[in-house]
C-alpha cells in the first residue's frame, strides 16, 4: 500500500491544535474524545490478567520449602538426567529447524 502526501497531510491536520495563540504553552486541544470499556472488554481484560499471573499452589510451595529447610528434599539422579537429556534434545531439534 502506498500512502500519498495528501493522506499524510490529512492525518496531520486532524491532530493539529484547534486554535493557536501567541504563546505555544497556551495551545488549546480538542478534548472531546472519550473512552468507555464495554463489559465484554472488561471481562476479557480480567481473563488475560488472570492467565498471565503465575500459577501458584501455596500448599505445594510450603511443603517444598519445609522439605528443603529440613534437608529432606531429594530428587533422584535418574529424574535429573532425564530432564537434562530432554532439554538437550529439544534444543537440538529447535536448532535444526
Class per helix and strand makeup: mainly alpha
Structure summary, number of beta strands: 0
Order of helices and strands: HHHH
Mean pLDDT: 82
**Can you summarize the main beta sheet?**
none
Could you say which overall geometry the principal axes of the C-alpha atoms support? elongated
How many alpha or pi helices? Answer: 4
- Could you estimate the helical fraction of the residues in percent? 55-70%
Radius of gyration using CA atoms only? 29 Å
How many distinct folded domains? Answer: 1
Descriptive tags:
97 residues, mainly alpha, 59% helix
Describe the structure.
This protein has helices at residues 5-14, 39-52, 58-70, 77-96. The chain starts with a helix and ends with a helix. It has one domain. It is an all-alpha fold. The chain is built from 4 helices and no strands. The model has no long low-confidence stretch (mean pLDDT 82).
Amino acid at each position: 500500500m502506498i500512502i500519498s502526501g495528501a493522506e499524510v497531510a490529512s492525518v496531520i491536520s486532524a491532530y493539529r491544535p484547534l486554535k493557536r495563540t501567541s504563546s505555544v504553552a497556551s495551545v488549546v486541544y480538542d478534548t472531546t474524545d472519550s473512552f468507555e470499556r464495554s463489559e465484554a472488554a472488561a471481562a476479557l481484560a480480567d481473563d488475560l490478567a488472570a492467565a498471565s499471573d503465575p500459577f501458584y499452589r501455596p500448599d505445594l510451595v510450603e511443603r517444598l520449602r519445609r522439605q528443603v529447610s529440613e534437608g529432606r528434599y531429594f530428587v533422584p539422579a535418574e529424574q535429573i538426567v532425564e530432564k537434562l537429556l530432554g532439554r538437550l534434545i529439544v534444543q537440538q531439534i529447535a536448532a535444526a529447524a
